[in-house]
Amino acid sequence: RDISLGAAAGAWIEEAVDHFLRSRRIGARDGAAVRWFHAANSKARAGQAARSDVHMIEADVLLRGGKGGNGDPIMAHPPETDSDNTLQEWLEEIVNTNKGIKLDFKRYLKIKIVVYCLHS
């Protein structure tokens, strides 16, 4: 089921846990049972996360070039300002997995560009 951007964080977490419970990927309605892969920003780490047995993948999104950047949305965590992985490439890698995602949008990001990528 789609989660609106305005949904409360607690409601989203409940639905994610319920999803993993319904799909029998966890045995009890317990958020602590959900396994995470953090900082899956590079192509290597995104691939590793996609092939792993985790439930959720977390990654960071910012604009290439950092604070003054107006380039593509990339997968990186400050102070990094470049990456071997764009948001579009990352989504293409992860979309056909059975993983949930959490994207951490850094303050330098222009949301308009990201919304375009997510709808593509």
UniProtKB/TrEMBL annotation:
Record-level GO cellular component terms: extracellular space
A Pfam family annotated for this UniProt entry: Menorin_N
Domain Menorin-like positions: 30-108
Ranges that cross the membrane: none
Family: Belongs to the menorin family.
Protein name: F151B protein
Provenance organism: Atlantisia rogersi (Inaccessible Island rail)
